Known about the structure:
Blueprint: H1 2-23, H2 33-46, E1 53-63, H3 72-85, E2 94-98, E3 103-109, H4 113-129, E4 132-134, E5 137-150, H5 156-173, E6 177-178
Amino acid sequence: PLMDRSYSAMIQKMQRDLVWQASHDPATGLANRKAFFRAIRRAWLRSKDGEGYALGIMQFEILAPSGEAAGVEIRTPILRTFSHLLPDHLAGQSHFARAGESGLAFWCEAADSAAAEAQAQTLIAAVAAQPQEIDGVRYSVHPAIGLMWTPDCLAPETYYDNANAACATARETGTPVVQ
C-alpha cells in the first residue's frame, strides 16, 4: 500500500509537470499564448467591475556593442531577466506571456487609454533602468510596445493581433509606444 501511494504521487507530479511544460515557455517560465488568453478571460470574468484593460506586446531589439543583433544565447537570459522584473511594475492585476523570439505580452487593468499608455511608459522606464551585461559585455535593449486598450476582454486573440500590429508600427517608426 505504501508503494502504491508513492507511485501514484509520482505519477500525479509528472502529470502536473507535463501540464506546466505544455503551457509555459521553458526559457522564461511565462505562459504561452493559449495559457495567456485563458488567464485573461478568467481574470476578466472574475473582475467584471473593471473600467478597462490594456493588452500590449513589447518587442526588444537587443544589440551587441558592435551594433549587431544579439543571438538566442543572449536574448534568452535577457528575456528571463525581464520576465521576472516587469510584473512588479504594473499596477493591479496583470498577466505576462512570451511573445515571439524577443518579446513579451502583457495584460493589465487600465481605466482608459491614457492610463494604459502610462503603464506602458512605466515598463519602458523599467527596461531602461535595467543594464544588461552578460559575460562582461553590455548589451543595449531598445523596447517597442504595441498597445490595445479595451473596455472588455471578449476577444483577447483579436486584441493581441491588434497590439502586435501596433508593435510592428512602433518598431518601424522608432516610437516607443503605439496604440
